[in-house]
Amino acid sequence: MSKNWPLWEIFVRSKNGLEHRHFGSLHAADAEMALENARDVYTRRNEGVSIWVVESKYITASNPEHNGELFEPAQDKVYRHPTFYDIPDEIKHM
Amino acid sequence: MKNKDLYNYILGIADNTLILGQRLGELCGHGPSLETDIACTNISLDLLGQTRSYFQYAAKLKGEDATEDTIAFLRTERQYVNVLLVEQPNIDFAHTIGKQFLFDVYHYLLLEKLQHSKDVNLSAIAHKSIKEVSYHQRFSSDWVKRLGDGTDESKTRMQDAINDLWRYTDELFHTTASDEAMIAQGIGVDVKELKTSYYERVSAILDLAKLDIPESKWFQEGGKKGIHTEHMGYILSDMQYMQRTYPNMTW
Amino acid sequence: MSEEKIKSLEKQFEDRILRDEKIEPKDWMPEKYRQTHIRQISQHAHSEIVGMLPEGNWITRAPSLRRKVALLAKVQDEAGHGLYLYSACETLGISREELYEQLHTGKAKYSSIFNYPTITWADMGAIGWLVDGAAIINQVPLCNTSYGPYARAMVRVCKEESFHQRQGYEIMMTLAKGTPEQKDMAQDALNRWWWPSLMMFGPTDAESVHTAQSMKWKLKRKTNDELRQQFIDQTVPQAELIGLTIPDPDLKWNEERQSYDFGEIDWDEFWQVVKGHGPMNKERMNARVSAWENGAWVRDAAIAYAEKQKEYKSKQAI
């Protein structure tokens, strides 16, 4: 036999109130081990309060070749931003 | 020394963490995978950190010029009182894990009780350490299960390791005269009382790992009296090398 | 893809890098970019894990508990850094096992500095101070390199590495102000590690084959000679401060250049070690290969166990 430990992506919440952020990846035979390894590899310096692990093969990523159609149409939708609207200067907070 | 019994009692705990930490440190850079290497080093660091807390306290009790390092490095072999289990060599990863597992289960039960010691220093160290040891226990138990219920080869190796190391488990529950004195004062933990739950827990994990529980009733002892296996001298010659070769220097 | 199409993609690609945009794993990239990055990132990762060995050699013999935990933590960090870098490399479509294979068969290189033996405790000081010092100079610019995963790994590495050099310098400082025997030990270590540390920056610019391309892709921001000079200028005063002597009779402050002039590096020695004939090349490789081979049954067992558990769980679900 020579099957290699699969790759896992590691997400860590640095402190409560913050979202989980992608920290990196590592190899592990199963989810339990991935969690333990993530704890030992990515939180050695007190960097986290919660860990998510997901096997890399289960992540579906968008294709950068489609970036044009996916993301550029959002660029000119200025009316989604507050600065698009004119209001009198006297109104300070809105 | 006023508190000779307390001092001895502390060494009885801290020599275990020192020697086990030292043994694990040997593996750093040679683990079966990078991830596992990092994990084992973490455990070694935990154990050595605990050792330092105990020895710093012991040094205060001893007074004179004692420091954590004089206690760690400048005793003769007969003065170290760790159990035989922790000094056993890392023959293969199954032995490393087996030794760790058989110690972790004991260590956890010990600290659970030591948290309630009447000695505030010991209770504080135990309180801090038990979280680390709780993780050690999980880590080593998981690996015992993986190796025990993995491949045929890993099963054989894990079973061999457990069989080899089993004879050193009974000593964990022996007490010295100093231990008894500390138990009487509500400072020390009566390890004799931990024995039943220890073997229950160990057996439960071995069961899950589909390993046989050794039946041998022949046990080895001596570490707690400073009578060690032949491995100990080599551990010390490494560990004490600098302090012995260059006495009285600051590093 | 037509040649013309590739040319235009390449042009767009180079322009992106020029604009300081990052390249991410799924982005189109020229094959040469991919290969160069695999080579450099893996070489870097290999250096981290082979680099664990010379220092690991002193863990059991560290002279105090404080030094022992610091050294353990440092060597462990190197394992972590190796791991971050292997992961970054894997995003380029090569597996860690393949990378190990390249290391073990001698196809991939690692930093030659780790082929020197660590024979005294002072070597722990010299490595931290000089080798990590040189590594930091090489690495800091990489936090801004063009390949996203590499840059991110380097940010983490650099952040964690900051204690390594201090740890080493503190060891040297303690020895230098210790007994005459300790000071001799420190000086001896400096004598042995100084020149190999200078060699860490690679061949002179005139001899270096990769520099121009690497500059363009921000794998490098300064040339080998510039980095070497920076290292010397920053290290000489640190040696003086603790009363140690740099083992170079030609070392002299050059007022005009505002830099140190230094003696000729023994490039024959450099190439000998690079080609595998350094004092410890064989031992380092043996240690890596046997750790990997002795670990095979452990890794297999973990996979077998995971599969059994999965099977068991799916049966339970039915």
From TrEMBL, chain A:
Superkingdom of source: Bacteria
InterPro entries attached to this UniProt entry: PaaB, PaaB_sf
Name of one Pfam family that matches: PaaB
Classification via NCBIfam families: PA_CoA_Oxy2
Name used for this protein in its record: 1,2-phenylacetyl-CoA epoxidase subunit B
Organism name: Winogradskyella aurantia
Highest classification ranks of the organism: Bacteria, Pseudomonadati, Bacteroidota, Flavobacteriia, Flavobacteriales
UniProtKB/TrEMBL annotation, chain B:
A Gene Ontology cellular-component term: cytosol
Gene3D superfamilies xrefs: 1.20.1260.10
UniProt-listed GO biological process terms: phenylacetate catabolic process
Transmembrane segments: none
Protein name as it appears in the record: Phenylacetate-CoA oxygenase subunit PaaI
Organism, as annotated: Winogradskyella aurantia
From TrEMBL, chain C:
Gene Ontology CC entries for this record: cytosol
GO terms classed as biological process: phenylacetate catabolic process
Taxonomic lineage from the root: Bacteria, Pseudomonadati, Bacteroidota, Flavobacteriia, Flavobacteriales
GO MF terms, alphabetically ordered: phenylacetyl-CoA 1,2-epoxidase activity
Pfam families: PaaA_PaaC
Species this protein is from: Winogradskyella aurantia
Superkingdom to which the source organism belongs: Bacteria
Protein name listed in UniProt: 1,2-phenylacetyl-CoA epoxidase subunit A
